[in-house]
């Protein structure tokens, strides 16, 4: 699936209060200024872990997800 398929790269979700509270506490502890950035970093890490699990199943399907995570972490500095 790629961006040429007409899909938007924007996702809007409503988090349960408890999850949002945890997200904010972790973001503040890590020096991340807003919940959107923290959620984006968290999603990038989740995708990276899941992709690694899939890669372990089929090494022919490997691709680099960590590049996006590295870019996000660089912006934070």
SSE arrangement:
Elements lengths: L16 H13 L5 H23 L8 H11 L1
Describe the overall structure.
This protein is an all-alpha fold and 77 residues long. It has a domain at 32-77. The protein has three helices and no strands. It has helices at 17-29, 35-57, 66-76. Helix 1 packs across helix 2 (35-57) and helix 2 (35-57) runs antiparallel to helix 3. The model has no long low-confidence stretch (mean pLDDT 80).
Q: How would you summarize this macromolecular structure in one to three sentences?
A:
The protein has 77 residues and is mostly helical. Helices cover 61% and strands 0% of the residues. It has a domain at 32-77.
Mean pLDDT: 80
Q: How far is it from the N-terminal to the C-terminal residue, by CA?
A: 31 Å
How many strand elements? 0
Helix content: 55-70%
Taking Cα atoms only, what radius of gyration do you get, to the nearest Å? 15 Å
- Low-pLDDT runs: none
Using the alpha-carbon principal axes, give the shape. globular
Summed up, the helix count is: 3
Strand content: under 5%
Strand-pairing-aware structural class = mainly alpha
Largest sheet: none
How would you spell out the order of helices and strands?
Answer: HHH
């Amino acid at each position: 699936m790629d961006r040429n398929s007409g899909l938007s790269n924007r996702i809007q979700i409503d988090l349960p209060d408890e999850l949002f509270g945890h997200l904010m506490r972790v973001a503040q502890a890590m020096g991340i200024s807003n919940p959107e950035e923290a959620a984006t970093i968290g999603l990038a890490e989740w995708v990276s872990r899941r992709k690694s699990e899939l890669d372990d199943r089929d090494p022919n399907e490997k691709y680099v997800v960590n590049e996006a995570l590295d870019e996000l972490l660089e912006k934070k500095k």
